[in-house]
Amino acid sequence: MDLDKETQEKIRDLQVYEQNLHSLLMQKQTFQVELSETENALSEVEKSKDDVFKMVGSIIIKANKEQIEKDLKQKKDLLSLRLKSIEKQEKGLEEESEKLREEVMKKIK
Prior knowledge:
Layout: H1 5-47, E1 52-56, E2 59-63, H2 65-108
Antiparallel strand pairs: 1-2
Helix pairs in contact: 1-2
């Protein structure tokens, strides 16, 4: 099949959108795992009535429970914000790639 230059360019653009979307999905998955781990850690710290410890490099040190809770809540908020941003970018890329896909399919038929 012989495609015009514009259609070939749209196909290349579509491939770029798909690669970017894949990259975003990988980032999203990483942030979701980190958010889940942070939520679990926060839950355990909140339940704890004993001393709380944290990893610093290759050692574990005793830490202030309130400060750990504060830090984990800030991390949770930041991760949630990043996830929302990624989801917004993901939606935009999906919409743009769908438009391009439809345009390419019209040209190919």
